[in-house]
Amino acid sequence: MADPEAPLTYWQALAVAADQGHLYLNPEAAAACSSACDAYISNLRDSKAKAVGLAEIDGYGDFASGQALRKIFAEKAVGGKNNMVDVLQSHIDVVEEMKVVFGKFFAATEAADDTNATDLQAQGPK
């Protein structure tokens, strides 16, 4: 569970600002941004899958130095400090937060459309 005392990330703060009506983005721009996020997330996930494969590499020979080098490179891909898989996942997490912000503009537009439609129906024909 998230720590309620934890500081907000930049994109979480923008989501709060959007909820409070302090941030506006027209629906067309929000749709374009959301679509770009989907494409970027797909690319990041593909790269992450390839990075996992980099942990299993051969060709460094049987000498201890070759095996040590293989281990170093494998840990750069998966499991080591600041490894590629974790870095790519952190990027995916940020882009997912971005999508939440852009999605709020869709929800706000749909809510306004629903309210307007209800008001028009209540007034009836003139």
Whole-number mean pLDDT: 85
Low-confidence stretches: none
| Strand coverage percent | under 5%
Structural class: mainly alpha
Oligomer: single chain
Helix content: over 70%
Compressed to H and E, one letter per element, the order equals: HHHH
The Cα radius of gyration reads 23 Å
Count of helical regions: 4
Could you describe the largest sheet, including whether it forms a barrel?
none
Span from first to last CA? 54 Å
Q: Could you walk me through the main structural features you see in this protein, from its secondary elements to its overall organization?
A:
The protein is mainly alpha-helical and 126 residues long. The chain has a domain at 29-102. 72% of the residues lie in helices and 0% in strands. It is built from four helices and no strands. The protein has helices at 10-19, 27-53, 64-77, 84-123. It starts with 9 loop residues before the first helix and ends with a helix. The mean pLDDT is 85.
What structural keywords apply?
single chain, 126 residues, mainly alpha, 4 helices, elongated
How is the topology of this model organized?
Layout (H helix, E strand, L loop, with lengths): L9 H10 L7 H27 L10 H14 L6 H40 L3
Helix pairs in contact: 1-4, 2-4
Briefly characterize the structure:
This protein is 72% helix and 0% strand.
